Amino acid sequence: MKRVILSVIVLAAMLSIAEAAPFQTLGMLRTPDAYVLPHKAAEILLVGYYRDVARPTYVNPDQNGFVPYGMLGVGILDRVELGFFGGDEVYYMNLKFKLIQETTKIPQVSVGIDNLFSPVNRHRAQDWTPTTALDWNYSDHPDKTDYEYYSPYIVGSKQAVIGGLSWMFNLGFGTNRFTGQVPRSRIFNGTFASVELSPFRDFAIQGEFSGHDFNAGIKYSYKNFGIKIGAQSLEDLTKNNGYEENLRVAFGLSYLFDKYATSKRRPDLRQFAMDQDIDDIEVAVVDEPLVGTPASGDIEVAVIDPEVTLVTPGTTIQTPGAVVQTGAYRELSPEVKELLADLKKLSDERQKAQQALIDLRKWLEELKKPK
Hints:
Number of helices: 4
Shape: elongated
Distance between the termini: 66 Å
Strand order of the largest sheet: 1-2-3-4-5-6-7-8-9-10-11-12
Radius of gyration: 27 Å
């Protein structure tokens, strides 16, 4: 309950200080990451988007107001992700292809192209000037720069556990919708970057530079459902030329269909725990029954076989199949603790299998005995 309350507080705070933006990807906010949906999995994202743009002045007032739209992503062969966007008077496809699979040392790398078949069919859309009503053709669309057609990119992503918290870092380079024309944007020339921090399970804070804007967002997940809120152009909050009056608010609800998938969109974070998070910690699964105390020195966590009787130091209490938890264990991240629990379950299942083999051997010996 405390986590839910904290999430609501953060959501309300971001809505009060930032201009939210429509989501362009199913991963981050407006910039892609290198991960793809697993084979036979799909994700749908429905967005309620309210836009009230005061600057630039050429924006058609009819483009303001409530704008619903949606996205659908499909995973193919754990290698390809197809995305479909519809709404806000535009439509397009996104295509992403995984080149390198992430490991403990190597980031995941993917290439892709956004806004395939988008009707905003000119490059450098941000340079367009107003035209007559008969030749509108998206020249005064307030989000035309984000819908610019055929925008290729390459991106690398890496997960890590730092200080007991889960992180994801993304760095990429793209053209067209990833580039800007103001001096600040030309310095980076199409480079985009993003980071995601998960202070606790199912909740994440996202920040990114899209190549021309600084954006932020938060998301909360419950089972296969996800709730997202994005924030665009945070630098506009410091201006006094009218842009600070722009309002873009978007709320997204997603659902992941993964009943038939055999993998995840991202590799399991637990295997990326860094050395400082599990320093001087060792997991020991004991095969032979024994009576004793936790080993002093390097072993901080011991998963003991269910038949083992552990005598707790300073007491006469005997605990079968105990998991020794020291101060170091309590400092572990939730992902590592979950891994230790899985190891304990595995040890239990192994013991059951061994007992079944013993019973089978006894039964066979009984059959061999002469009647």
